[in-house]
Automatic annotation (TrEMBL):
Lineage: Eukaryota, Viridiplantae, Streptophyta, Embryophyta, Tracheophyta
NCBIfam families referenced in this protein's UniProt entry, alphabetically: PPR (TIGR00756)
Repeat region (PPR), residues: 104-138, 205-239, 306-340
Keyword Repeat: yes
Source species: Prunus dulcis
Annotated keywords: Repeat
One GO-annotated biological process of the protein: RNA modification
Name this polypeptide is given: Pentatricopeptide repeat-containing protein
Length: 383
């Protein structure tokens, strides 16, 4: 029979009101009242605290780990470290890092991953080189974050040098490492290097295809993007929502209504027509190809319309000269309790000028006070 532990570091367990976190609350409370809890129990609860961003409960589990003498356990310690990073507490993460046994790779990986995840790319690279200087060998889980950090500081040369190390260590064929390096290349315009690496990868999943496809789109290589998509269709990899949203953006920018319509049929067959990113990109494609009836049909079919959807439909009407329809849709948007943003106003206000409606302009001026739209943009547009 377990006995209650008397831990002077905490006195009260903080209750959780969120329905989705009640099970975590119960598990945490159970753990804090156990004597002899094992490392795996701590690790499981700490992971749950990380997943739900429960920093206060995580701190209490950390305190209990100190009282139980498990804080320096490699499994528990790294889970605490990860919990602080995932909850955005960098200082706490750094403090716990120096309390751990740094002869293992995992704490170093978490520091590199955590700093990269939060956008502190220079610190991520600093800890990578500290890791090497401490004689700790990186593993395949180290390099995706390191490569991403290289991209964050726009240092392709460093990324290539690190990739030489990756190949020397035998991790060059790892799909996560490969996709990270391809992302680095495409983000910095090295599309040929990205393609060469993509071809070299022995195993390609949907994520890897999507990274390469997005690279072509981002770098204005529309024909290559279409060719890439067709090649993917001939492979054993099935496109997902990200794939379709990406290739549809090409159809929109290049006004490829024929190919876009074929894609729409394929999307319906895959059951992705009402996926928000896919539907929004489809709507944009039809609008830019002057197929407003198809765009509106899709808009009316969507079970959930977000701000991007409303903006896309309003913008489509305006771009094609349907000012009255744009005005009606804007009013319907307000009536649906969807708050317009600066993009909404910037695209819609020209229709007010076109209609020469002072009354409507004044109504919009009052409507903007319930939003965070930039004052200067709205004032200039209204003038």
């Amino acid at each position: 029979m377990y006995k209650k532990v008397i831990c002077p570091i905490y006195k009260h367990f903080i209750p959780i009101t969120s329905q989705r976190s009640k099970s975590v609350h119960t598990d945490c409370k159970y753990l804090l009242n156990l004597e002899g809890a094992v490392a795996s129990q701590f690790a499981s609860i700490l992971q749950a605290c990380s997943d739900h961003s429960l920093i206060q409960q995580g701190r209490q589990v950390h305190a209990h780990a100190i009282c139980s003498g498990l804080v320096k356990n490699s499994l528990v310690g790294t889970k605490i470290l990860g919990m602080y990073f995932l909850c955005g507490r960098i200082v706490d993460a750094k403090n716990i890092f120096y309390q751990l046994d740094l002869q293992y790779t995992l704490p170093w990986n978490w520091m590199i991953r955590g700093f990269t995840m939060m956008g502190y790319f220079e610190f991520a690279l600093l800890f990578y080189f500290k890791m090497l200087g401490s004689g700790i060998s990186p593993d395949k889980y180290t390099f995706p974050s390191v490569i991403k950090a290289c991209g964050g500081v726009n240092n392709v040369k460093l990324g290539k040098a690190i990739y030489d190390t990756i190949q020397f260590m035998g991790f060059g064929v790892d799909i996560f490492v490969g996709s990270s390096l391809i992302q680095l290349y495409v983000d910095n315009g090295c599309i040929h290097d990205a393609w060469c690496l993509f071809v070299e990868m022995p195993h390609k999943d949907c994520v890897l295809w999507n990274v390469m496809l997005h690279g072509y789109v981002k770098n204005g290589k529309s024909k290559n993007a279409v060719g890439m998509f067709l090649e993917m269709r001939n492979s054993e990899i099935k496109p997902n929502a990200v794939t379709f949203a990406c290739i549809l953006s090409v159809c929109a920018s290049e006004a490829m209504i024929g190919f876009g319509t074929q894609l729409h049929g394929l999307i319906v067959a895959c059951g992705l027509e009402l996926d928000s990113p896919v539907a929004n990109t489809l709507l944009a494609m039809y609008s830019k190809c002057q197929c407003l009836s198809e765009a509106r049909k899709l808009f009316d079919m969507m079970p959930r319309t977000d701000l991007v959807t409303w903006n896309g439909m309003i913008s489509g009407y305006i771009q094609n000269g349907f000012m009255v329809e744009a005005s009606r849709l804007f009013q319907a948007m307000i009536s649906s309790s969807v708050k317009p943003d600066s993009i909404t106003f910037a695209s819609f206000l020209p229709s007010v000028a076109e209609l020469a409606s002072l009354k409507q302009g004044m109504w919009i001026w009052h409507a903007k006070f319930s939003t965070k739209a930039p004052e200067l943009m709205l004032s200039c547009a209204l003038l």
